[in-house]
Amino acid sequence: MNKEDIKNREDLEVLINSFYNKLLQVDDIKPVFAGIDFPSHVPHIVAFWAFVLLDEEGYKTNVFDKHINLPIKPHMFDVWLEIFNATVDELFSGEKAEMAKQRATSLSYTFKSKWEKIKQA
Fold it and tell me: Nearest to residue 5, comparing CAs of 99, 85, 86, 80?
């Protein structure tokens, strides 16, 4: 099957919904997202990735600050990244798909580093 690249918000919605459906199957990660209303949260996640990948304006939220109070353990960033990259590879191929994986790798590394520093303080 010839996969296409990520082109628009609709593609990002497919990616995000598929990704979180997989991530929420991981037993030790499920509790992190307990109580989150995903239908209302997905548009925010899509807006973030549209800003990152499609150069769409309007996303101003500090992503790290939004996650700092969640019960996340450092290894979860690695799981998040592995599932995100696998989902991208499963659904898309091309420049934006590769950029999504690069940005996710950077985001995961940055979050994990900041997280460990803050949680050790």
Answer: 99
pTM: 0.89
- How far apart CA 115 and CA 119 sit, in angstroms, is 6
pLDDT tens track for 62-110: 676 666 677 788 889 999 999 999 999 999 999 999 999 999 999 999 8
The two structure tokens encoding residue 29: 């990660």
Q: For the chain, give the secondary structure using H, E and C.
A: CCCCCCCCHHHHHHHHHHHHHHHCCCCCCHHHHCCCCHHHHHHHHHHHHHHHHHCCCCCCCCHHHHHCCCCCCHHHHHHHHHHHHHHHHHHCCCHHHHHHHHHHHHHHHHHHHHHHHHHHC
